[in-house]
Design brief:
Layout lengths: L1 E5 L7 H14 L9 E4 L2 H10 L6 H15 L4 H6 L12 H11 L10 E8 L4 E6 L6 H8 L9 E3 L2 E5 L1 H4 L3 H7 L6 E5 L10 H4 L4 H28 L3 E4 L15 H17 L1 H11 L2
Parallel strand pairs: 1-2, 1-7, 2-3, 7-8
Antiparallel strand pairs: 3-4, 3-6, 5-6
Helix pairs in contact: 1-3, 1-11, 2-6, 5-6
Length: about 290
């Protein structure tokens, strides 16, 4: 069993998309043909759907979507900025741009159409439980990807299939452990792609007197980053050389989920290229294992 797992990270999904494009180039095959299961959270869920839909999208095309459509997805009108008070009393973004993009690239596919198998994460805020969305869920890829990427405070929750769902990153920013458990540990190779490690410091002198208002956005980032790191440690111990994590520090690009400025998109692309260069030998060995 070979598994591909893609983290959540908003616009930073450009990084794993570019890494996947390099893997496809070296292997000479679509990513969906290289793995038995593709798992994704949030922006990783969108990538997972695009890779496994009927007539799958090449990873290079997925990367271009981030550049071409990301600015529209993370765009706020002046009225929205005012009425949401910068995201403090309402979601920061309307879902229109995200839904338009999802419908353009994923409709009319359903999770049951995914080839290979797919596993997406979401959280049910009414039943207060984690949800793993699979091919046997009667759900469109548009709805599933929308629910998995509905990050609290950024987008409103998604009502689908009688449930109210938000971003799976609240419990599984790195969904690799969910995929491992779903296959009962029967895993020969698990490739986990990150969206860039957060590097923004939260100094003690600055945060020691913060209250609920100041912690709203930083707390979400800390939860997302912390859960991803925990999964990485666990899977390294469980799988050893059968677990490959491709991740990079964000030394140049912003770690914001929603910075889709031209300057940051260029910086994210450079971060991806540095990751590929730094892991050149590991990528070569990986492609040998994926195409025996």
């Amino acid at each position: 069993m070979k598994i591909l797992s893609v983290d959540g990270g908003g616009i930073r999904g450009l990084i794993p998309a570019r890494v996947l494009a390099e893997i496809e180039r070296r292997c000479g095959r679509p990513a969906g043909e290289l793995f038995d299961l593709v798992a994704g959270t949030s922006t990783g869920a969108i990538i997972a759907c695009a890779l496994t839909r009927p007539d799958p999208l090449p990873a290079e095309r997925i990367a271009r979507i981030y550049v071409e459509e990301g600015p529209e997805i993370f765009s706020r009108s002046l009225i929205k900025r005012i009425t949401s008070v910068g995201g403090l009393i309402d979601e920061r973004y309307e879902s229109d741009g995200l839904l338009t993009s999802l419908r353009r690239h994923l409709a009319p596919a359903r999770l049951a159409d995914a080839r290979p198998a797919i596993l997406l994460t979401a959280y049910d805020i009414e039943r207060r439980r984690a949800r793993l969305l699979r091919g046997d869920d009667d759900m469109s890829m548009v709805d599933a990807a929308h629910a998995s990427s509905a990050a609290p405070s950024y987008f409103e929750p998604v009502r689908v299939g009688g449930a109210t769902l938000v971003d799976g990153g609240v419990f599984a920013t790195n969904p690799a452990m969910c995929a491992y458990a779903d296959r009962a540990g029967d895993v020969d190779l698990l490739v986990s792609l990150g969206c860039g490690e957060l590097t923004r410091v939260l100094p003690y002198d600055e945060v020691k007197d913060w209250g609920r208002l100041e912690w709203i956005r930083p707390a979400l980032d800390v939860v997302f980053d912390g859960t991803a790191d925990a999964v990485d440690v666990q899977l390294q111990a469980l799988l050893g050389d059968s677990y490959i994590r491709l991740q990079t520090r964000l030394d140049e690009a912003s770690d914001d989920l929603d910075d889709a400025s031209p300057e940051n998109l260029d910086a994210l692309a450079r971060e991806a290229e540095r990751l590929i260069e730094a892991h050149d030998e590991e990528l070569t060995r990986l492609c040998v294992r994926l195409t025996p």
